[in-house]
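Hello forum,

I keep getting stuck at the same step: I have a sequence, I want structure tokens, and every attempt I make locally crashes halfway through. Rather than fight my setup again tonight, could one of you with a working pipeline run this one for me? It's a single chain of 60 residues.
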Amino acid sequence: MALMTVSEVAEFLAVQEVRVERLERESLLLSKDKDDAGNPLFDRTDVEKYKELAERLGGI
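Reply #2:
Ran it on my machine without issues. Output:
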């Protein structure tokens, strides 16, 4: 399982970091772990699936 930081997810999804944090807070994108500073870490596979679904629904 490859974990991605908030900034990596934001870059992959082409959105701002605050948007990724909101998706996590609203349980639309679930974090798998936390880093030493308490920031969420996301599984790359979950992020890819989320992006695919969002694109099918009309965008992120």
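The chain has three helices and three strands. If your local run keeps crashing, start a new thread with the error log.
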